[in-house]
Specification:
The protein is mostly helical and about 210 residues long. It is about 75% helix and about 0% strand. The protein contains seven helices and no strands. The longest helix is centred in the last third of the chain and has 49 residues. It starts with a helix and ends with a helix.
Length: about 210
């Protein structure tokens, strides 16, 4: 095998490994934020990332084994994965409205279920801690860092602002991760095509 093919093979293995790690990281990120996303989106994202992980592993195995069939299969499915992912990311950017932090906080406030929000997002009340003061209510322990009820541990920001920032940041992170995955998928696709051709040519030479 020529030096150029060996370099492509090593690069393909490394990039497929990185793609696999990115897919695992994306799965972990989805799991952490599952309670803030629509169930259908979470399920679709789990499936997509799991499939990406599978074909990243297949790409590594195919390159190591120098298998024409497996390498070609990996290339085809990486392209099949990348195209709808590109389309869905464009749709997500232009058509997906960021969830309303105000709506989520209002629902939690009315249900008297603010504790989880306040601890997770390090906030207090809807607009500020004054929401409790104006209602002559005790400030709940969840408004304090590590539940230590002292002034210097009190969260001063309201949950609407914090949650809205979280939702907007969540959308941006999804877009960035999605484009990174697409780039790696396309690069791995090109490398897989080059390797499949190289492996096929090598097989032909060995036949003579």
């Amino acid at each position: 095998m020529g030096c150029a093919t060996t370099s492509v093979k090593i690069t393909s293995i490394v990039l497929n490994a990185i793609l696999g790690f990115l897919a695992v990281g994306a799965i972990g990120w989805i799991a952490y934020n599952a309670d803030t996303e629509v169930e259908e989106f979470v399920i679709a994202a789990y499936i997509a990332c799991s499939v990406i992980l599978f074909f990243a592993i297949l790409g590594i195995f195919a390159a190591v084994r120098e298998s024409v069939v497996l390498t070609a299969t990996s290339a085809v499915f990486l392209l099949i994965l990348a195209i709808p992912q590109i389309l869905s990311t464009f749709l997500f950017i232009h058509q997906y409205d960021v969830k309303s932090g105000q709506e989520a906080v209002e629902l939690a406030w009315q249900a008297n279920n603010m504790d989880a929000l306040q601890q997770k997002h390090e906030c207090c009340g809807k607009s500020s801690v004054q929401d409790y003061v104006h209602l002559s209510q005790l400030i709940p322990p969840s408004c304090y860092a590590n539940l230590q009820q002292t002034t210097d541990h009190l969260y001063v920001d309201g949950c609407i602002e914090k949650l809205q920032s979280f939702y907007e940041g969540d959308k941006l992170r999804f877009i960035i991760v999605s484009w990174i995955l697409v780039v790696f998928e396309l690069i791995c696709f090109v490398l897989a095509v080059v390797l499949a051709i190289s492996f096929k040519n090598k097989q032909r030479r060995l036949e003579f």
